[in-house]
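User: Quick sanity check before I run a bigger batch. Here is a single chain. Can you write out its predicted 3D structure?
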Amino acid sequence: MRIKVLVAVLAGGLAGCMVGPDYVRPTVQSPAVWRIDYPMAAEVANTKWWEQFGDPVLNDLVDNALRENRDVRIAAARVDQFIGALTSTRSQLYPQIGYAAEASRTRASRVGQPPLPPGADPYFALYQASLGASWQVDLFGRVRRLSEAAQAQVYASEQAQRGVVLSLVTSVATSYIALRALDRQLEIAQATARNFGATARLFDLRFKAGIVAKTEVMQITSQYQQALAAIPAFEQAIAAQENLISILLGRNPGPIARGKTIDQLVAPLIPADLPSTLLQRRPDILQAEQNLVATNANVGATRALYYPTVSITGLLGSVSTAFSSVFTGPASAGLVAAGVSGPLFTFGDLRPGQLGGGAKRASAAVLSTDHPQCVSRDQRCADRLAEEDRRSRAAEQASGGIARVRPAVEASVRQGGGGLS
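Assistant: Done. Predicted structure follows.
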């Protein structure tokens, strides 16, 4: 009856006592909204944006990278590592049950204390079997704070994994688009070389016909050689880009399959204005916050070391000198004990842990809520969105300019070849 009362009291105390500061999310200065409703922005953020380019080859490259990239595998393994640490830490909240068995053969001293009587056999056997349980009551919340820190580390590792995945997808998509742009530049360089070659042959014929001077032929020939010299640089850049994509895919350097041309790719539609709440979904920000949660919980775990530790131990078993009677009633033995221990004079041994935890918590809070850094994050997002809008308009203007100039170029080419007709 007394044991039941003691357990009930300890359980009540366990539920209501936990030292250390509770985590409170710091206030971050950010713009409230960037002139667009959140559902639309969330829809854009949740889509597989690389699929909006409309290139099946790019989609396959991203899928292969997510399956085979080594950094993604390492990030996933770290998540499993922290999950295992969380399970191990939480197990300390519950009683630990174990068993033991021992058989020994002993020779007693005839002249020991007490001495053996004359004629007594100094040899005897001892058989023991027991089932025990021990429970360190988390009265002041040390294990719960450690569990809180371990849980935060799991969340932080998951956000780190998200960051790796997002960076990988971005790298594969941008590298592929850069590769297709280099392919296009190589095609233009080869076409330019062919055009200069044809022009050089045309001027050579004109020179032989006495229409142009030798200097004009030499000038065109020089331009033709310059156009040919530009081709190997693009070929080397394409090979390097293919090697980069191969590494991102987790395989040895080699050729990369091609899909649509750079002109056929459809740029994803990105709203020019997005709500600042999207910043709270960034993996690096969420990871920094979870690291702050873990540090805050570790401060509470360190403070709990100043308080007493309560433990309860129970043991049920049997001890006998004969194996045949080891499990009989007379051989049974048992033990129930409760103990309290705690620091009295540690001469500063616990102080550095609390100071270090507080310093880490303050440092993490400053890093995650520092106003200049938050403003810098907002600025980078706004700059990227504005830059994307400017690039889209510049691409449209360039396409229109090419379309307007093309007829004049074609007419000039036709006029240039008219001297020999």
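The longest strand covers residues 123-137.

User: Great, the batch can go ahead then.
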